[in-house]
Amino acid sequence: MVLETPDGSKAEARDSLAGRAKGGLLFMGGFVVLLYVIEFLNTLMMHGLNRTFGLRSRSFDGVLDILTFPLLHANLNHLLSNTLPLLIFGFLVFLAGLRVFITALAFSWLGSGLTVWLIGGGGVTVGASGLVFGFFAFLLVRGFFNRSWWQILLSVVLFMAYGSILFGVLPTVMGYVSWQAHLGGAIGGVVAAILLRPKSTAPTP
User: How many Cβ atoms sit within 10 Å of the Cβ of residue 102?
Assistant: First the structure.
């Protein structure tokens, strides 16, 4: 619904933002609920889903697992650690619109998975932290590409609050942390921001 006011464009913009906010809450809430349902089933199966659908590096059988590994987690604590940043960052990206969200999600997902598949260590990789890093990186850089002061301000606030997680893209001595997934997700988020930047229009003669 669009309210009829003397400044109809502002009313429509407010209504559109409210609609995107509602959609973001519903989508991200539903996605997180799905992750918890999968984790519950996975726990009942002694995390057997991880062995079947987790991502194995440089394995041709594991290529399709790029599509499934962010839906799985090592345990409940692993999922809990991803839940809040995934909700916050995903919701903020969704405020920019469904097309922007899907693009950022797709590039974060694929970037994370392809990087793990190409340069990951041994074992099986699972977890949605690649999506977290992808959304975070997208939010950090999009304001500079869009030349939007409020988006730049948001990126500064997010960096001050969550900037320390960027150390997760570096090789770490903790073998159970997949820095490759973090790095690939972050690269995917930046690529999405570049692709979605406003196109410059050449002046007409």
Answer: 13
> CA dihedral in degrees (133, 137, 139, 143; nearest 10)?
180
Per residue, the 3-state secondary structure of 89-154, as one string, reads HHHHHHCCCHHHHHHHHHHHHHHHHHHHHHHCCCCEECCCHHHHHHHHHHHHHHHHHHCCHHHHHH
- Encoded amino acid at 175, one letter: G
**pLDDT digit string (tens) for 22-57?**
999 999 999 999 999 999 999 999 999 999 999 999
| Structure-token match 């969200």, residue found | 101
What Cα–Cα distance (Å) separates residue 32 from each residue in 76, 153, 193? 13, 27, 24
Number of H helices, E strands in the chain: 7, 2
- Report residue 141 as tokens: 């850089």
Is residue 197 classed as helix, strand or coil in its secondary structure? coil
* Distance (Å, whole) CA 101 – CA 110: 14
